[in-house]
Specification:
alpha+beta, 13 helices
Length: 407
């Protein structure tokens, strides 16, 4: 087997894995490589490039289902869905620019392998919640299929949920089937200006509990607002709390009115629509405000939403003023950019009182090799992780060590 293999169909993927298995040659599994900086650095002898497995193999708009080969670009899938006014409701994130890769170049297999979701996740679910079926090749060199083409088609263990977010450490996915949903007719975003982090967290929690079906809830402190790329936000000179509503035009107008009546008294407010709203939520989704700062480690923190402001206060006490952050998912997700490399212990210690977990999304190779990238597991969970890895990939052939040492 050569150092780089680019199979063109599932049978060739199986052959490549079998060849690597017989040669004892660990494989890096990738599509177009836009997320190679996500996870621990790997020492692999060869690369299995799945980017040639490309194309939509099934699309039934009336049934809200699509199948595609794993190397199919997300941009191709979203274009096909847009023609039918449909969408990937989990709003797949594009982390490529965080690692210096081209924007909009990721693949559908990579999205599900890394379980990448956007601001709508708290309402619509994560990527794994939309994955219906998978065809893949395990580290044993065995092809298998799990799930199917409808939501209620799971028998036994739901391996789709297990494979989503496994970062290619269990199997090389060759084809995925997923549900799609109608796209909203209109999108409008209420902006509240000048709230402190603590008040913003309260407002975001209240907004998530309203009957107005808010589909995006975020708070961006000043001066990060200057990088958002929306004039009304950049010129405000203050932090902004954003509440998004989507759907049929009359419903959106009514819900927008309800939000402004309920929260407009808390701060100065305005709204953005159409293109500007899309720009804002893509920036939130992809953490693009931190893309240019490649020398700064970048963290993604999942915390109980009500504790979000307190978490940042504890991190500031430990790391000083050289941090930047914003809140997504009504405070349940914090994007944190830090100065310096020895931040893992301080960041994770700041989560302890309220719980949560921290993922090191971007850092130099040496830092990611020395510090846990994914939140450390307790002994029982670590043992379970090792057993699952052994079941799928007993020789630790696929993306070895990308998530945890030996897994």
């Amino acid at each position: 087997m050569s150092e780089a293999s680019r199979p063109e169909n599932a049978a060739q993927v199986e052959d490549a894995v079998k060849s690597a298995l017989s040669a004892g040659m660990p494989l890096e599994i990738l599509g177009r490589g836009t997320k190679r900086g996500l996870g621990r650095p790997m020492q692999t002898a060869a690369r299995l490039d799945l980017s040639a497995l490309r194309g939509i193999t099934l699309y039934e708009p009336e049934e809200l289902v699509m199948s595609a080969l794993a190397g199919t670009p997300i941009s191709e899938i979203e274009a096909a869905l847009a023609e039918k006014r449909q969408q990937l409701a989990f709003e797949p994130a594009d982390y490529g620019p965080l690692y210096g890769a081209e924007a909009n170049a990721g693949t559908i297999g990579g999205v599900f392998a890394c379980n990448l979701s956007g601001p709508r996740r708290f309402k619509a679910g994560a990527a794994r919640d939309h994955l219906l079926g998978v065809k893949a090749v395990s580290g044993r060199g065995e092809s298998f299929k799990t799930g199917g083409r409808v939501v209620k088609n799971v028998t036994g263990y739901d391996l789709c949920k297990l494979l989503a977010g496994s970062y290619g450490t269990l199997a090389a996915m060759t084809e995925v089937t997923f549900k799609v949903l109608p796209a909203g007719e209109k999108t409008r975003t209420v902006l509240l200006f000048g709230l402190s982090d603590r008040i913003a967290v309260e407002v975001m929690g209240a907004a998530a509990s309203t009957p107005h079906e808010v589909s995006g809830i975020a708070h961006v402190p000043h001066p990060i607002t200057r990088r958002i790329g929306v004039n009304i936000i950049a010129r405000a000179g203050a932090g902004v709390t954003a509440l998004r509503v989507e759907g049929p035009a009359p419903s959106v107008a009514a819900r927008l009115y309800g939000l402004t009546m309920e929260f407009g008294k808390r701060a100065a407010f305005d709204e953005i629509t159409g293109h500007a709203s899309g720009v804002f939520w893509r920036q939130i989704r992809d953490a693009n405000v931190f893309a240019a700062e490649k020398h700064r480690p970048l963290w993604r923190l999942s915390v109980p939403p009500a504790t979000a402001a307190a978490v940042i206060e504890r991190i500031r006490e430990r790391l000083g003023a050289g941090i930047e952050w914003y809140y997504d998912a009504a405070g349940g997700l914090i994007w944190l950019s830090v100065l310096g490399e020895a931040s893992a212990e301080a960041v994770r210690a700041s989560l302890v009182p309220g719980g949560g977990h921290a993922t090191l999304i971007r850092a130099a190779d040496a830092v990611r090799a020395a510090q846990p990238v994914f939140h450390p597991q307790d002994e029982a969970l670590a043992a379970l992780t090792r057993r699952i890895k052994t079941g799928f990939d007993p020789q630790s052939l696929l993306n070895p060590g990308r998530m945890y040492p030996g897994a």
